[in-house]
Amino acid sequence: MAGELTALLPPSFVTSSTVPANGDLNPYGVAFVPDGFPRFGTIAAGDLLVSNFNNAQSAGNLQGKGTTIVKIVPHANPVTFFQGPARLGLSTALGVLRGGFVLVGSVPTKDGTSATVQPGSLLVINRSGSQIAEWTPAMAKINGPWDLTIFDQGDHAKVFVSNVLDGTVTRLDVSVDDSGVHLNHATKIASGYTIRSDPAALVLGPTGLAYDPQRDVLYVASTADNAIFAVFGAGNSQHDSSKGVLIYADNTHLHGPLGMALGPNGHLFVANGDAVNADPTQPSEIVEFTPQGSFVAQFSIDPAPDGGFGIAFAQPRHEFVRFAAVDDNTNTVTVWNLPFENAGQ
C-alpha cells in the first residue's frame, strides 16, 4: 500500500448493516479478528466486529445504552456475537486478542445524556460471546474507556485505553492463557487532554489510539483539542507523560478526530466526527497523514456530518489489506479491499 489512500480506494466495496436483532444503533467500535485466533467459537480469524453505543429507536435511541457486539455479514443482517445487560453503552474501545478473547469498553448513561454518564468498565468476552470478566475503574485505572488499541504478543499484551471522562490514557499489562485475560498492572501514561460534555456527541475527550511498537510511540487523537499527540516510550513508561508531543494540529483537515488507526504504509488515519471545528464542505472525512504531521489525503464516508467514528485495518493478505469504517449516521460499516504491494513480505 503506497501513495494516497484516496487514490487507492477501489470502485467496489461492501457496505453492511450494523443493526442487530434488538435494534441497537450508533456503531462506534470496529475490529477485525486477527490471524491465529482459536477455532471452535462463534467468531473466527478475518471476521469483522462492531460495537453499538445506542439502544433501539423504539427504546429512544439513547446514547450509552447499547449492549451488543455484532459480527458483520456482507450483504445481510449482522449476527449478534455478544449481548449484555441493559445500559452498557459499548464504546469505540473494541479490540480482539489472538489468544481468543474480545475486549470492549462500556460507558453507560441512565438517560442518554452527559448528565448521567458513568465511569463504565472494560469487559472481557470469550470466543463464544460470553462475558468472563469485568475490569472496573478501581482495578484498571479507567474512567470512561472511549477507545483502545492492543499490542498483542500472544501470551501477553499491552492494552492502551483512552479515558474520556478524565482526559487520560492508561496502559494495561495483561497475560493471556486458555482460562482468560489477566490484568497484571495498570499505569497512567498520559493526561491533560481537554474534556467536555457535548449535547450531540455526549462527551468529548481523548479517543483514537494507535501504537507503533517499533518506535514505542502511542498516538492519541484528542477530539476536544482537535489535535494528535505522540506519547514516546508508551509501552514501558512508569510515569505520566502529560499530553506527549503535539504532532498534528491541522484545522483545515481535522474536525474533531475520533477513531484512529496505523496503516500498513506507516501513515496514520483518523475519522473526523465533526463535533469540533466542523466544516459543512468536509463532512465525515477520514484523513491520512504521516507520523511527522504532514497531510496526505482525505475522503468522505457520508455526505452529512457526524458519520465517522471507528476505523480499522485487517492484517494484509495476498497483496491486499482490508480497511473498515463505520458510519453511525446510516448504522452501517463499509469495507474496502486496498492494494498493498508489500503484503506477504
UniProtKB/TrEMBL annotation:
Protein known as: NHL repeat containing protein
InterPro entries per the UniProt record, alphabetical: WD40/YVTN_repeat-like_dom_sf
Organism, scientific name: Paraburkholderia caffeinilytica
